[in-house]
């Protein structure tokens, strides 16, 4: 099982380090598609503003992550990427050669004379300081990102063609900048993730979302719907936002553009207020579970434990899946068997008031392969998150969650995440509804957009 808190990238001087290492390869000329040097002007596709939709795979348990497959390059090659709203940089494992790579060499990304230069504006966006220094403007742009679980990726920025199909039927193949990671490190006792890299969904200017927005292709909005039965969908743009029913709360003014924060919120248990007040929360699809600071976590543990007194559950200390597990008279086969013993939680947002995120038992419990039921809310302080509070995948399941960077707000609504078609209004071309934005050479792009900044 992959228990991770990859999502939050830590942008602090000691934790987000950027190097000027020499990239250990020289590159051959790129294979460019025909007419690649004839970009469509931004005005020529402003009227095409639409949404790109992607099928999501994965689950909270036992995989511990949700992924999207993205075509990159020309001819396109498919890469499975960890869906991560807690960071902005997208990167793939790089054939450079590569340290800490989990994919066979033929599944690694091969750069082809397409490095982003140090003087490029996007290079400064992946560095913390405003005094980003280039020994030479033509030097490559290096990056290193360290995540909250102390995993990291070191590499270089590149630009390549990434094809997208949109809900209005148009297709485009812009050149997008992303990381080519040639040195990955993983922490903890869990095995390295099986994915080829990370799809950063934050609003930093280096994110794919921001680059597509700057090209005039989409609204600056991203959303995801993760199913408790596995899978779901992800979208860029505005088309899949329901016209009613969404609960909206403002992003915190102090929110980093690398991730999405809201609050303050008070914690309720079984409809009653608790002593946990004023939580600031990070919505992080890159984290398998939900993490509270140690004080809030202990309150939740005590409330749940005391509420189970007199019920037919005992602590399953022999189950190593998560820190706190229980077993019944016989093994649990599904959450429907176990949830009757537990009461719901809720987060009540105080600014604005009367907003609530309801967390039924399914939003904080899992059933393990050992037949136990375990609590998927963990102690964030214990794993180095200090006072950060993270709403992870387990609590985001079966909700359409929307990050609207234009209106600076986060929204959610209960949803059937197994079917994207139920969220589409109006005409939506059937071939694209079937492919959910994932396509290869059988669906060539109708025009190119280049970004040679």
TrEMBL record:
<dbReference type="GO" id="GO:0006508">
    <property type="term" value="P:proteolysis"/>
</dbReference>
<dbReference type="InterPro" id="IPR032799">
    <property type="entry name" value="TAXi_C"/>
</dbReference>
<keyword id="KW-0064">Aspartyl protease</keyword>
<dbReference type="InterPro" id="IPR033121">
    <property type="entry name" value="PEPTIDASE_A1"/>
</dbReference>
<dbReference type="Pfam" id="PF14543">
    <property type="entry name" value="TAXi_N"/>
</dbReference>
<feature type="active site">
    <location>
        <position position="84"/>
    </location>
</feature>
<feature type="active site">
    <location>
        <position position="284"/>
    </location>
</feature>
<dbReference type="InterPro" id="IPR033823">
    <property type="entry name" value="Nucellin"/>
</dbReference>
<comment type="similarity">
    <text>Belongs to the peptidase A1 family.</text>
</comment>
<keyword id="KW-0378">Hydrolase</keyword>
<dbReference type="InterPro" id="IPR021109">
    <property type="entry name" value="Peptidase_aspartic_dom_sf"/>
</dbReference>
<dbReference type="Pfam" id="PF14541">
    <property type="entry name" value="TAXi_C"/>
</dbReference>
<dbReference type="GO" id="GO:0004190">
    <property type="term" value="F:aspartic-type endopeptidase activity"/>
</dbReference>
<keyword id="KW-0677">Repeat</keyword>
<keyword id="KW-0732">Signal</keyword>
<keyword id="KW-0645">Protease</keyword>
<protein>
    <recommendedName>
        <fullName>Aspartic proteinase Asp1</fullName>
    </recommendedName>
</protein>
<dbReference type="InterPro" id="IPR001461">
    <property type="entry name" value="Aspartic_peptidase_A1"/>
</dbReference>
<feature type="domain" description="Peptidase A1">
    <location>
        <begin position="66"/>
        <end position="413"/>
    </location>
</feature>
<feature type="signal peptide">
    <location>
        <begin position="1"/>
        <end position="28"/>
    </location>
</feature>
<dbReference type="InterPro" id="IPR032861">
    <property type="entry name" value="TAXi_N"/>
</dbReference>
